[in-house]
């Protein structure tokens, strides 16, 4: 059909650019015209709705009917010049649309449109007379439901048409407790809409206030959720079940406490509500009040006999939850009513633990006097561990000042939960690279040598010179080894070889450089370097040496052959030679120095004998011992001599 052949149909369809439809047949254009007409009819019905709500936003709203018995015609010219008439017909009370060709052809029926009964339209329009007439003529139709299970009574309640509700109940009294597919009654819908008049009328006519929806919401529960005091009072007056539970086990009291509505709480208690009803997780109303910081509701419940030490399914108490969420006033109130601070959750943690972990330092201060130290020890974890692990420095400071043992160790069961078997709060602080916490713990007397894997090695691997200095100054063993990865030299050398300032500081602090030159093969040929055993066997670049297990201690020369550090072999050997006397380089170390011509000077440096001044320095340092080397800078000696003993570098030069 060409664009020029469209006559009346053009205005009906509202086309502005006919060329787009030039390839459509007569029947296709007429089908579009019918659909457009129906769309306009629906839009008109919605715009005239008393609610002013679009259909897409109205619950269970369906299109309104057009005027009864309407016959609209469409006239088009075909390509042969013949004129053909078409019509679509609408009936009263139901949608029955069809369009047929007046040249004798059969009907073509479009897809059906959802039915909207006339009485529903009358209800939405608030036409009480029409509702009365339709209800009187066909009382049976009042029980017919739409696709959501809504009958006219539900519609009347939803649209708050109280007079229509009265008419419908008079015509069909048995519809009063009819449920939708979601098992909502008219009473529940009226409560949800907070229509007091509807609620009162339904209750006076015998609506059951205990019928719950599919998710177990009752009218009373919904009224408490809406915080509507008048409706709550009405439902209680007509016998609403005050202890009925929703799908998760909450009662109306749970809901009112959650909203801190004391007036409704009083009404419920006076009506016989249980004070300590647990939900499916063992949570009582008092637990809800403490968890959400509802101080007034909590005080009301305690005054009415609520158990302040009741525990949820996971063992948590109200005090535990209040401490976790930082409700200081709630914690204070619970403690004043003898809440037990020594009652652990199933995790074994006490309220003090969780307060320290969350950094609630004020609550930590309140809980310390109420918490038994013996009970804390039995838990296998100190609050110091949790504060250090989560970088809660303020809480850590409060605990340290209160005298908590900074050297307390995790129980074996808790320590094995960590891959590195950490056990002290200091280890947590160092692993987090938290300098402030590390300093606090060390100043309070933390021993840096208690963990299976030394905290010093963690700091060395992180390359944090400041932390290393702190640990060494407080007694960390610079010659410590990794238990699960034996080496013939200090493990710290393996972890910091590419960071020469750090390696030099360790050497100045007494790290055993001599061990790096003890090789079982000496100047004899060495066996070929094996492939790495796995993660951690790649020498200085190791991420976690604890993962490797070897039968024989790793030799320094073999470690230095690792691809990740072999390019640093020369500078590392050069630095270490400053801290040893007469040593013989093994065949592999010599091979390393021969591999790069610029390293020839290092090989020359190692030739025997070493300079006398150098040998004297090494002898003096050896006589002083590792521990006294830390006080070298404080000796009453000329500065030049101290620098000589420190290999020409002072402590401050490492850090700045």
Automatic annotation (TrEMBL):
Gene3D superfamilies: Ankyrin repeat-containing domain (1.25.40.20), SOCS box (1.10.750.20). The lineage of its organism: Eukaryota, Metazoa, Chordata, Craniata, Vertebrata. It comes from Synaphobranchus kaupii. It comes from the Eukaryota. This is SOCS box domain-containing protein. InterPro entries: Ankyrin_rpt (IPR002110), Ankyrin_rpt-contain_sf (IPR036770), SOCS_box (IPR001496), SOCS_box-like_dom_sf (IPR036036). Keywords: ANK repeat, Repeat. ANK repeats lie at residues 182-214, 215-247, 248-280, 281-313, 314-346, 347-379, 379-411, 421-453, 451-483. Residues 43-63 have a biased composition (Polar residues). Residues 43-66, 528-548 are annotated as: Disordered. Pathway: Protein modification; protein ubiquitination. GO terms for biological process: intracellular signal transduction. Residues 588-651 form the SOCS box domain.
């Amino acid at each position: 059909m060409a664009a020029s052949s469209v006559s009346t149909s053009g205005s009906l369809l509202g086309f502005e650019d006919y060329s787009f439809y030039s390839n459509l047949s007569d029947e296709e254009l007429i089908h579009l015209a019918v659909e457009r007409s129906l769309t306009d009819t629906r839009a008109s019905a919605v715009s005239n709705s008393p609610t002013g709500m679009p259909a897409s936003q109205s619950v269970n709203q369906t299109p309104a009917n057009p005027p009864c018995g309407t016959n609209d015609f469409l006239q088009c010219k075909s390509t042969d010049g013949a004129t053909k008439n078409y019509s679509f017909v609408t009936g009263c009370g139901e949608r029955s649309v069809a369009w047929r060709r007046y040249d004798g052809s059969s009907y073509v029926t479009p897809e059906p449109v959802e039915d909207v009964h006339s009485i529903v339209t009358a209800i939405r329009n608030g036409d009480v007379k029409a509702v009365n007439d339709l209800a009187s003529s066909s009382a049976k139709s009042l029980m017919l439901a739409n696709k959501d299970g809504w009958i006219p009574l539900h519609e009347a309640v939803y649209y708050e048409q109280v007079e229509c509700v009265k008419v419908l109940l008079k015509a069909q009294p048995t519809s009063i407790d009819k449920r939708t597919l979601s098992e909502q009654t008219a009473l529940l819908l009226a409560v949800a809409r907070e229509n007091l008049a509807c609620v009162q009328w339904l209750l006076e006519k015998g609506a059951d206030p205990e019928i719950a929806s599919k998710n177990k919401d009752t009218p009373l529960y919904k009224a408490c959720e809406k915080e509507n005091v008048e409706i709550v009072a009405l439902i209680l007056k007509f016998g609403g079940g005050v202890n009925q539970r929703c799908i998760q086990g909450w009662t109306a009291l749970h809901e009112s406490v959650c909203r801190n509505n004391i007036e409704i709480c009083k009404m419920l208690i006076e009506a016989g509500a249980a004070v300590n009803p647990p939900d499916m997780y063992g949570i009582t109303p008092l637990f809800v009040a403490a968890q959400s910081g509802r101080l007034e509701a909590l005080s009301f419940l305690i005054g009415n006999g609520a158990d302040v030490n009741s525990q949820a399914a996971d063992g948590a108490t109200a005090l535990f939850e209040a401490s976790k969420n930082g409700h200081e006033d709630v914690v204070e109130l619970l403690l004043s009513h003898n809440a037990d601070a020594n009652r652990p959750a199933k995790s074994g943690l006490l309220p003090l633990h969780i307060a320290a972990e969350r950094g609630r330092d004020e609550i930590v201060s309140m809980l310390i006097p109420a918490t038994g130290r013996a009970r804390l020890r039995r838990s296998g974890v100190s609050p110091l561990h949790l504060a250090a692990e989560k970088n809660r420095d303020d809480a850590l400071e409060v605990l340290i000042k209160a005298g908590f043992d900074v050297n307390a160790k995790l129980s074996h069961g808790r320590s094995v939960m960590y891959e590195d078997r950490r056990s002290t709060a200091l280890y947590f602080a160092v692993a987090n690279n938290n300098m402030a916490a590390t300093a606090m713990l060390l100043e309070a007397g933390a021993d840096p040598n208690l963990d299976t894997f030394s905290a010093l090695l963690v700091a060395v691997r992180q390359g944090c010179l400041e932390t290393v200095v702190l640990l060494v100054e407080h007694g960390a063993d610079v010659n410590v080894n990794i238990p699960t990865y034996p080496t013939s030299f200090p493990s710290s050398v393996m972890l910091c070889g590419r960071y020469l300032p750090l390696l030099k500081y360790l050497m100045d602090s007494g790290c055993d450089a001599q061990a790096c030159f003890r090789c079982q093969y000496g100047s004899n040929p060495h066996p070929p370097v094996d492939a790495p055993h796995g993660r951690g066997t790649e020498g200085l670049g190791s991420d976690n040496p604890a993962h490797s297990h070897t039968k024989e201690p790793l030799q320094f020369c073999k470690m230095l052959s690792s691809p990740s550090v072999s390019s640093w072999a020369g500078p590392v050997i050069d630095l270490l030679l400053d801290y040893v006397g007469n040593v013989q380089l093994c065949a592999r170390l010599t091979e390393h120095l021969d591999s790069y011509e610029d390293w020839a000077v290092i090989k020359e440096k190692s030739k025997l004998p070493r300079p006398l001044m150098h040998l004297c320095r090494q002898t003096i340092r050896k006589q002083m011992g590792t521990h006294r080397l830390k006080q070298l800078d404080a000796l009453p000696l000329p500065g030049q001599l101290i620098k000589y003993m420190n290999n020409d570098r002072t402590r401050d030069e490492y850090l700045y």
